[in-house]
What does this fold into?
Amino acid sequence: MPAKRVLISIDERLLERVDERADRLGLSRSAYVAQLADADLLGGTGPGADPAVRAALSALDDQLGDRR
It folds into this structure.
């Protein structure tokens, strides 16, 4: 799907932080913001959204303790 150009308003300090993080990740500002929006919109659909999966991961964390 072709990208759309949009205009948004954002606090200057937040924009600086977004740019710093995007730069550290090797992403453009647009790619980073798009990635954040996509992750937020997917929100509770990943494997961690399932309570049984969260419980299993927690149990693994407990078993591994400091060995990780």
